[in-house]
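Hey, resending since the last one bounced:
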Amino acid sequence: MNFMKFRLRIGDRVEVLEWKPEGSGSEGRAVVQNQEYRVRFQRIDDQQIFLEVNGRPVRAFLARGAEGQYVFIKGRVYGVREEDQETGRKKKRDLEEAPGEVTPPMPAVVVRILVREGETVAKGQGLVVVTAMKMETTLKAPFDGVVKQIKTTLQAKVMPGDQLVEIEERKAS
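The structure tokens again:
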């Protein structure tokens, strides 16, 4: 797999981050300002990520705000927003505009598909199970609807922004 390039706005500056996943997808090489880092990460919950950068542990805390994502590392706060992405994957703000799509929160591998196309699902119902760093995460339906299309397969390596399941919202009558 080639490097994926992201243009991130961090505070007032824009940085290009190149990411090449390795192994399970939750580890790889990151290049920022011509500096290469070996990175492993594990999402602890929706607000915490444990990182290992060049062998050194780093705990990052996450929060979503009106202007994007905020990352807290070692007492410092960084506002981070994706400017664009050169991989053809959807940007975070595009995903928010398309709530019928289900996408993983981090690089992962699909281990179970819990629904079929055409199936009616309820908000919060499990759709797909992914694994990263030996931790399974069940991706759930964001609302009541019908599975329009399943866009993944078992053992597929997937990234944030990859649309795994498309759901057509069921309108209240």
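The chain has one helix and 16 strands.

Sorry for the duplicate.
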